[in-house]
């Protein structure tokens, strides 16, 4: 286990790697790297900034983290109490420190995460602050450097924390379009929603020696697969061998590598070049709730959240292939990611909807045990995400709209998936959907589980069947982490606000599609008809929207979530 850097006032520190007792001043001179075994102790955000930037050059952004408790989450403690304890314990307002600085006299925008603050989790305020840093970089035409340290998305904010993966990725996409360098520095640990978004979808990905990164953590993988993990699994060296990072850099060389990258970026930039790319609209200003369309009143049936979870998982619930057979016409399935894989958990191809050609992509589960096993329970591998991305890009080239049907417990948490770059595959889908120049309508038909669901759901319109669920984590997983045992899953389901009416009220979902009573499994034909009508109602108005406007509005849609709704107080202290 990686040790934490020693605190002020300590004279000695014991290495977390070799257990050697080290004189603190010697350890500090060595940048908190054990001189005996090379173990890199974790750094907090202020320490990291001090090591990387030119002395006295860091200027914090004027914005301060908003007070956010979007779903009123309570486990054994109310969420605001956890936030207060984290602020008192770290001296930080949130789990990220953002600002501008110079590194080797090259100016850049900087966002540095701090694992001490609720495990560096990605919540609405964190997403907002990192997005503001990216917007500052775009405004001033600066490179952006992200230093990640996170356990993943913040469960206490439900699906709104999941949305931050898309919000920050869109900001990265804007910098990419403008020709500005983005660099992420993976430090230990970087997992979950952070790994599957801005940590891996930048232009250059560096990993500090000793860092670990993956979509699913080792404990989760062992629990799900029952397999022992190979030596060095998910370490920086593992990531380098499997082509998931550009380089592994020891801490003493990290600043020098960044200087070289920033120097190269500065040399390639035309002096006085205006922001943006010729022929494209400028990036959108942050949208407020009033800018969005009026939302329909959510469907209310009084059903308990845990009962809804069980309905969403019902084995008789229609699958993507069922809907393709009933709600769509003339489906022609396309296979393969063109890199050697054809994931059975994702199906897609060309179809017709009311006489219009569309590209339909969705998760495929099955109804029997044999089908579920053969389809990996709808959990996509990296090949599945890449197949979906290939079909989305094909649709854009052909000028066809995209319809996605989401029904997955989450992305594949297996060893093979990690070796093949699960986090980066999800991140690339989210980033690419942010700028896809064709209409996209997503429908959550059953389970919408975490980043595996979001990889198909960064859309112009997000619909949700009445008895579907959409969440940052499963109720069982949330209960296992925040409650004493998994028996609290029903309570966690209620706290996560994962039902369609909840998410419609939060603005994550644009419309709720009614189901025949008691659920879609009872009358699949009627369920297919209702889905078809809802998709058409939301898709047809998008067909006449200019492409640049479509992308701009899609970005505004995801820019609204979480702390952006409340606003970040400029200049507050």
The beta-strand count equals 20
Query: Based on the structure, what is the oligomeric state of the protein chains?
Result: single chain
Spatial extent as radius of gyration: 23 Å
Number of helices: 22
> Kindly, what is the distance between the CA atoms of the first and last residues, rounded to a whole number of angstroms?
36 Å
Q: Classify the helix fraction into a percent range.
A: 25-40%
User: Globular, elongated, flat, extended or rod-shaped: what is the shape?
Assistant: globular
- Global mean pLDDT: 86
Proportion of residues in extended strands? 15-25%
Helical/strand content category: alpha/beta
**Which residue ranges are poorly predicted, with pLDDT under 50 across at least 5 consecutive positions?**
268-295, 566-573
Largest sheet properties: 8 strands, mixed
Quick structural gist:
The chain contains 22 helices and 20 strands. With 573 residues, it is of the alpha/beta class.
Characterize the structure shown.
This protein is an alpha/beta fold and 573 residues long. Helix content is 38%, strand content 18%. The strands form four sheets. Strands 3, 5, 6, 7, 8, 9, 10 and 11 form an eight-stranded mixed sheet that branches. Strand 7 (144-150), helix 5 (158-177) and strand 8 (182-191) form a beta-alpha-beta unit. Helix 5 packs across helix 15 (422-435). The longest helix has 20 residues, at 158-177. It is globular, with a radius of gyration of 23 Å. Residues 268-295 and 566-573 have low confidence and may be disordered.
